[in-house]
Amino acid sequence: MMKPDDRKARIFALMQRYNQVGCLLPEEDDFDPTNAAALAEAKLILAEMAKVKAELEAMLGLPLCATTTSRPAATRCSSG
């Protein structure tokens, strides 16, 4: 059994990872859905987000309310 502080740290680490990976998604103006490489990259990023989300849901013991594939709020992503 995980200690409460360890559990809290893991949950926040997963949330941070989810946001970091989401920041890798291209902006709408930069995305070309007809480009096979761009689609493959987006699918890879979304698959990683899904993996992290599944682990986070398991840690919380219930599914998260909203499932989104959109980029996290711009204020959460640093450019650089």
Question: Would you kindly provide a written description of the structure presented here, covering whatever features stand out?
Answer:
With 80 residues, this protein is mostly helical. Helices cover 55% and strands 0% of the residues. The chain is built from two helices and no strands. It has helices spanning 4-22, 36-60. α1 runs antiparallel to α2. The longest helix has 25 residues, at 36-60. The protein is elongated, with a radius of gyration of 14 Å. The N and C termini lie far apart (38 Å).
According to DSSP, the number of beta strands is 0
As a percent range, the share of strand residues is under 5%
Shape: elongated
* Percent helix range: 55-70%
Global structural class? mainly alpha
Count up the helices: 2
Overall mean pLDDT stands at 85
Order of helices and strands, N to C?
A: HH
Largest sheet descriptor: none
Unreliably modeled segments: none
Between the first and last Cα atoms, what is the distance in angstroms?
38 Å
Any idea what the radius of gyration is?
14 Å
Secondary-structure map:
Elements: H1 4-22, H2 36-60
Helix pairs in contact: 1-2
